[in-house]
């Protein structure tokens, strides 16, 4: 009978060694041989848990990536259920709440998000930020459509601008992880980043959020 304590210990050793190897070299240059050696386990022991380096990386970051994407999807889903007037009135509060939930979660899993943002080239997670950008871009177009249905005249906005602004927002959010910003500083930075984007959207759309 396999001792479960030993299984957990071996798996933890693999995860610790893998995390360091991926952080140091990125996924593509990371060596499975080095991971196994650093973990002090045999290659056979490793393959008892994972079929590949890709599967190992997924085990380290998959849950965290899915959590953030699900958080954003839930936020957008709840937002879309509101009337146009409520969307405009609650826009800032809803956005701030989602962002601070994300930041708190990111800082509880700092290394995993560093892997996602800086070390995922060559994995399915290379487009993690892009997935958030697509969601934000789609939501922005939907909100503009809602404003038009409400009879609010919205000046034409370049479609590329909406995508680029969304990209700038999320790239900016994850700069907190890239630069190892202290959590309290990150919260202040995120708040100011949102204020900047809010003012720009109000100017472009000709609306005032809140109130």
Low-confidence stretches: none
Number of domains: 2
Please give the radius of gyration in angstroms.
Answer: 21 Å
Number of strands: 0
Order of helices and strands: HHHHHHHHH
Category by helix and strand content: mainly alpha
**Cα shape:** elongated
Folded structure, characterized:
The protein has about 210 residues and is mainly alpha-helical. It folds into two domains: about 1-50, Homeodomain-like (Arc Repressor Mutant, subunit A); about 60-205. The protein contains nine helices and no strands. The protein has helices spanning about 5-30, 30-40, 45, 55-80, 85-110, 110-120, 130-150, 160-180, 185-205. Helix 1 (about 5-30) packs parallel to helix 6 (about 110-120) and helix 8 packs antiparallel against helix 9. The longest helix has 28 residues, at about 55-80. The N and C termini lie far apart (about 65 Å). The model has no long low-confidence stretch (mean pLDDT about 95).
